[in-house]
Amino acid sequence: QLQLQESGPGLVKPSETLSLTCTVSGGSISSSSYYWGWIRQPPGKGLEWIGSIYYSGSTYYNPSLKSRVTISVDTSKNQFSLKLSSVTAADTAVYYCARSTTAMATITWGQGTLVTVSS
Amino acid sequence: SYVLTQPPSVSVAPGQTARITCGGNNIGSKSVHWYQQKPGQAPVLVVYDDSDRPSGIPERFSGSNSGNTATLTISRVEAGDEADYYCQVWDSSSDHLVFGTGTKVTVL
């Protein structure tokens, strides 16, 4: 069964870049049937889509974050990554990596990792 | 940008039926997916493509979608169904994924 696991710093300073990696196990990230993406949830708030990437490299980003976000895939390591630049306290959230179908139903979620932006 | 609106809360007695709406402009033309999220846990897909259930999801969970409203129906509600529920679509006109505002279901 395919599993996802987020990794990265739990604390990031304001104005710096948040970097997270999602490791895929039990399946190949190169599958043509899925999108790989990031979703976040500020404490006590709802879900917010950050962006998604297809195995071919095509990317799709939330317009409200697009200027600060980069999502990439490393097929050799079976991983995909998130970089969010110029972070502020408003970027404090649980960050989930996820696998979605071509209809963008998110069928697999990582356990989530809390990232706090604070000096 | 495309907006999905859900009621903040729904309360239901055990054994009764809960209906959670998700409103959006012409949402009936899109595929709607629904997620259940319990405190401290990642969301779980309970309905996809308007009305299909992933394996392992009870038949008590069903979905419909028409016009400007999609609905998640939970029949014979159990205490374990208490959670936050989110609808979600892919807006192909802008290539963006959109989540609804979320509904907290309370079992009385």
What does this molecule look like?
The complex is a heterodimer of chains A (119) and B (108). Chain A has 119 residues and is an all-beta fold. Chain A contains no helices and eleven strands. Chain A has strands at residues 3-7, 11-12, 18-25, 35-41, 48-54, 59-61, 69-74, 79-84, 93-100, 106-109, 113-117. In chain A, strands 2, 4, 5, 6, 9, 10 and 11 form a seven-stranded mixed beta sheet that branches. In chain A, strands 1-3-8-7 form a four-stranded antiparallel beta sheet, with no helix packed on it. Chain B is mainly beta and 108 residues long. The mean pLDDT of chain B is 97. Chains A and B meet through strand 5 and strand 10 of A and strand 3, strand 7 and strand 8 of B.
Which structural class do you get from the secondary structure elements of chain B? mainly beta
**Helicity range of chain B:** under 10%
- Give the overall pLDDT of chain A as a whole number: 95
Gyration radius from CA atoms of chain A, angstroms: 13 Å
Count of helical stretches of chain B: 0
Mean model confidence by pLDDT of chain B? 97
Topology record:
The complex is a heterodimer of chains A (119) and B (108).
Chain A (H helix, E strand, L loop, with lengths): L2 E5 L3 E2 L5 E8 L9 E7 L6 E7 L4 E3 L7 E6 L4 E6 L8 E8 L5 E4 L3 E5 L2
Parallel strand pairs in A: 2-11
Antiparallel strand pairs in A: 1-3, 3-8, 4-5, 4-9, 5-6, 7-8, 9-10, 9-11
Chain B lengths: L8 E4 L5 E6 L9 E5 L6 E4 L13 E6 L2 E6 L8 E9 L4 E4 L3 E5 L1
Parallel strand pairs in B: 1-9
Antiparallel strand pairs in B: 2-6, 3-4, 3-7, 5-6, 7-8, 7-9
